[in-house]
Amino acid sequence: xxxxxxxxxxxxGPAGISAAQRLAGSGARVLxxxxxxxxxxxxxxxxxxxxxxxxxxxxxxxxxxxxxxxxGDGVKLSRFPSGRRLAELLGPVRAARLEVDALHALCGPELxxxxxxxxxxxxxxxxxxxxxxxxxxxxxxxxxRAEQRLAAAGVQVCLRTEVSGLVPATGEGWQAMLRGRRSxxxxxxxxxxVAVGRRGRSWWHRQIRDLGLGFxxxxxxxxxxxxxxxxxxxxxxxVHQDYKTSLTRAGVKIKTFCYCAGRAGGGGRIKFTDYAAxxxxxxxxHVIAEPGPDEGQAVANFALLAQLREESxxxxxxxxxxxxxxxxxxxxxxxxxxKPVLQWFPDFADRRLxxxxxxxxxxxxxxxxxVADYQMANLAAILPEPVHTGLVAAFTxxxxxFTGTAAAQYAHRFGAIGLELENTWDEMALTPGMETxxxxxxxxxxxxxxxxxxxxxxxxxxxxxxxxxxxxLVKGLAG
Length: 479
Fold this sequence. Notes:
Strand content: 15-25%
Structural class: alpha/beta
Helix content: 25-40%
Number of helices: 12
Largest sheet: 7 strands, mixed
């Protein structure tokens, strides 16, 4: 069976959804495919204090309609200058216009309240950009509304469907083989918008090389996520809801990432992101924007990430990351290799393991982790020595400030959880229309390698849609 469309969109996260809505609203025939499930059936067992099951090789956290706008979780929306490289590619005027369009496409006519950094409140330089934390109810409304709008625009959405091949078609356009649960389908499209998130990372890595696309390899970062009482981390959130700073410690560049503390809410929740095909699970974090039943018991978390560079200054390549980080990480757990581990922070700092059970961790720290699917392990032991030294020094410097005390008063209240791995996307060579070096093939969202985040992804999707429609109007095809 085969079908012809104007545009094939691969991935139904914020980038794919925004592109599909704009294209279909202008008369284009759009087919959108998504490897995961529908948004109302994306429950994660880890969130329910159960074990990660891999969700039959399609993790509900990192795949499914809505993408990183995970249904039922709180999230943060960040505006420019977050996503600076994307804004520079688009140009300031166009970036600002598309950002407003993206926010209204996501949130409707009433936008949430955005706030920036408190002036002069931090001893460390804070990246200042407007950010808004959304509650779980607001997130549900956004994703529900997106599904309804795509249906009203006539977009065909194929869930639980993967692209097994993407090649230039004879003559003009692109050809893709879709694999669904019950049948395969050949699709021919004039243009293709690749909007895959983490579920499609390895697929896109191969496609870039198979198609000979222009790109720059990334500089990966490794780190851990620190979890402790929300009250102790709220000092950072009072400065900025997504407190981001960069420090150099032990000669290693280290940055804060995904600060999930909340100014007056329930703190944050750690998420598992299962890369079943690659044999490991990494970490993410989501903010809990609504107040909890007992804020005194709320936990919060944030990541510290260290750049991985050789002595020459060159970034680690994919093979070295696999051999020197992922392989040792898999060996930390004998019950389920590659699943996250927890280490009491005093043990993490000393690279030893004296706290050997979750029950003992709770007794010694006074903290119940936000998820229960951990084993205790010596996470620090698998990190390169300069990275470990830098992470401990950066955490101590930051936590001294956040808590207003010294390490002797707070260190025992925290755990270090890993593994966290970021900046693994190739940075694509793109036009301001988000077109790759192959005509008619676009990359938006995470897979562009330019910017992460819900708003930036949606902006990229709209930019690609505009470019496709401009070309089609010239050719008299659509719109």
